[in-house]
Write a structure and sequence with these properties.
Substrate binds at residues 76-78, 114-115. This protein has four helices and five strands, in the order E-H-H-H-E-E-H-E-E. The chain is α+β, with helices and mostly antiparallel strands. The model has no long low-confidence stretch (mean pLDDT 89).
Length: 167
């Protein structure tokens, strides 16, 4: 097998990376994305008047569930015992956007970046699904890692962005 953290073995075939020798540490990842929409659609969401129900509550649960299932959704991604997942939303009325932030924690041998990114993606898709009868032109946009900590590679902070203070 190839040495190092690669998803390819010595023959070039896909494999799951062996993280067995990595230290168990507390790991955190924060991801963010947004759904762009008309201001009237955003108002419907915020006022709780979308015909399919409470969009933010359903999107929050969908994002949490997706984070827990990431190992089943993303090929070669390790299944992890997640200790905490939170999904938060911030409306940007001027831009006609709903920002989504996921925060995922674990104590383990590999990070939770994929879980945080998956949580944001599925929360955004859920918002789209629940609102598509009102507006089909919504755009899911700018899904990205904001911060990660723990593990051998240390701390990462996206330049110019910090996780939301949700305490």
């Amino acid at each position: 097998m190839a040495n190092g953290l690669t998803h390819l073995d010595a023959k070039g075939a896909a494999r799951m990376v062996d993280v067995g020798a990595k230290a168990v540490t507390e790991r955190l990842a924060v991801a963010r994305g947004r759904v762009l929409m008309g201001k009237s659609t955003l108002d419907l969401i915020l006022e709780g008047h979308v015909p399919k129900g409470d969009v933010l509550a359903v999107a929050r649960v969908a994002g949490i569930m997706a984070a827990k299932k990431t190992g089943s959704l993303i090929p070669l991604c390790h299944p992890l015992a997640i200790s905490a997942v939170s999904i938060d939303f911030r409306p940007d009325r001027d831009a006609g956007a709903l920002e989504i932030e996921a925060r995922v924690k674990t104590t383990g041998q590999t990070g939770v970046e994929m879980e945080a990114l998956t949580a944001v993606s599925v929360a955004a898709l859920t918002i789209y699904d629940m609102c598509k009868a009102v507006e089909r032109g919504m755009v899911i946009d700018n899904i990205r890692l904001i911060e990660k900590s723990g593990g051998r590679s240390g701390h990462y902070q996206r330049e110019g962005e910090k996780p939301w203070d949700v305490s």
